[in-house]
DNA sequence: CCTAGTGTTCTATTTAACTATTACAATATA
DNA sequence: TATATTGTAATAGTTAAATAGAACACTAGG
């Protein structure tokens, strides 16, 4: 996997797993691939995987069973809350950054609308294939 | 100044200066504080400042005159384009991330609207001081 | 000419992230 | 009871970012 070399890999791994939990690609109680397998999949060292998983275990999002494997928490509300947190983080970041670029509240909203609309038009172009 | 220890300081310094150029706090042709002064202001090493400025000079946003100082480019259209780029980056990032969290286009727009609205209400509360 | 204030460059250290490798601990299963 | 598979931990080495400190190069002004 390709990583952004501007942010620590273990944080990017956490982000990937968070997203898979939130989108349901990883379901509550589901077993994760073995750490050694994850290391291969992500083309990264086992220690780096372990560092990511270790913090997520400490946070209660994963449950570790020595000799068996790592599992997604069964706590579904916790996962729902996680999604809210991740969304909120993103919103706070854009808002802060666009405000720092002197965009007003209205300009922020309309710029997002325009961006989404443009993305949509791009997708439409594929219909001509 | 406080930095996010998850992203290199010299990149954060670039971001600050970019923002000051875009918002007009630093005007075209204006002289920047001396590198040693900037290092003091940002509570950072001179070399780190130099690393940030060096790349911005290479990018053409700053002009360096040995023995005199560093100056913002006189090229106003270049600065206008910079703002567009920075805004676009932010929009691309949120869109990508929120989509990865399974939000639809409409949900992305409405979530931004709700967020801005909530921020507005928070600000109103200060009027009661 | 000299000095102070600029930008620029260099070397040496420290620290955090990552890698590589090995070993250990617990579980499941043949 | 072995053996394979799992998570966990420890040690050692590499790299990039940042710091500290010194030196060099150019400009302006007394």
Write up what this structure looks like:
The first copy, chain A, contains 5 helices and 2 strands. Chain A is mainly alpha-helical and 129 residues long. The first copy, chain A, folds into 2 domains: 9-74, Arc Repressor Mutant, subunit A; 77-128. The first copy, chain A, has a two-stranded antiparallel ribbon. In chain A, a hairpin with a 3-residue loop joins β1 and β2 (69-72). The longest helix of chain A has 25 residues, at 76-100. The radius of gyration of chain A is 19 Å and the shape is elongated. The mean pLDDT of chain A is 94. The interface between A and B is medium-sized, with 34 and 34 residues. The first copy, chain A, binds a DNA duplex (30 and 30 nucleotides) through residues 5, 8-10, 34-36, 44-48, 50-51, 53-54, 64-70.
Topology:
2 copies of one chain form a homodimer.
Chain A: H1 9-22, H2 35-41, H3 46-58, E1 62-65, E2 69-72, H4 76-100, H5 105-125
Antiparallel strand pairs in A: 1-2
Helix pairs in contact in A: 1-3, 1-4, 2-3
Chain A binds a DNA duplex (30 and 30 nucleotides) through residues 5, 8-10, 34-36, 44-48, 50-51, 53-54, 64-70.
Short overview:
The structure is a homodimer of 129-residue chains. The first copy, chain A, has 2 domains: 66 residues, Winged helix-like DNA-binding domain superfamily/Winged helix DNA-binding domain (Arc Repressor Mutant, subunit A, Orthogonal Bundle), CATH 1.10.10; 52 residues.
